[in-house]
Design brief:
This protein has 160 residues and is α/β, with parallel strands linked by helices. The chain has 5 helices and 6 strands. The protein has helices at residues 7-11, 22-36, 82-92, 106-112, 122-158; strands spanning 2-6, 45-50, 63-68, 71-76, 99-102, 118-120. Strand 3 and strand 4 form a beta hairpin. Helix 3 packs parallel to helix 4. It starts with a strand and ends with a helix.
Length: 160
């Protein structure tokens, strides 16, 4: 499964991405994805698409890519919009049924509708954090209980 995230649509939809600069807001999204893997399995890939205002007419692809760990980050070149790039990736895919587009943008949803690609709302994508938070709480509880049990056994076996 390949997830395509409409970057600015996500960071403009939730208070967790509030920061003093746009770059920090983008970095918070990348950190969120890296830490919580809302796209699931390690086999799933993810691309985050952002608009850019600079128009680099020398770029023939219409965008530039960078990789941050296992996250592909794509910036439009200002000629194509992020929306256009998302739709182009879906349209050029050999198997769009293996693509999930994360956005609340109805225009994008409409444009990919006939392709067979799936759509996931920003809220659903971000809610996957809650599941991870619950797992972390359980793990912390398990560690605390384990430490208490170990102390009890230590007292019994070592007669402290």
């Amino acid at each position: 499964m390949h997830y395509i995230v409409d970057g600015y649509n996500v960071i403009n939809s939730d208070d967790m991405f509030v920061s003093n600069t746009l770059e920090n807001r983008r970095n918070i999204l990348i950190k969120f994805i890296r830490e919580f893997r809302p796209h699931g399995s390690l086999k799933n890939s993810i691309s985050v698409i952002f608009d850019s205002k600079s128009k680099n007419l020398c770029q023939t692809s219409g965008y530039s890519k960078i990789c941050m760990c296992d996250i592909e980050v794509i910036f439009s070149d200002g000629v194509l919009s992020a929306d256009d790039i998302i739709v182009e990736i879906v349209d050029m895919s050999e198997n769009p049924y293996n693509i999930t587009v994360v956005t609340n943008d109805r225009g994008i949803i409409r444009r990919i509708g006939a392709s067979g690609a799936k759509h996931e709302s920003v809220e659903v994508f971000l809610s996957k954090r809650a599941k991870h938070d619950n797992v972390q709480k359980v793990r912390k509880f398990d560690v605390d209980v384990k430490n208490d049990i170990n102390k009890e056994f230590e007292k019994l076996w070592l007669k402290k």
